[in-house]
Amino acid sequence: MALSKAKELRKLSEDELSTEIANVKRELFDLRFQLATRQMETGFHQFKHARRKLAQLMTIERERQLSVGATTSENAAVSSEQ
Question: Its GO biological process terms (predicted)?
Answer without folding.
Answer: translation
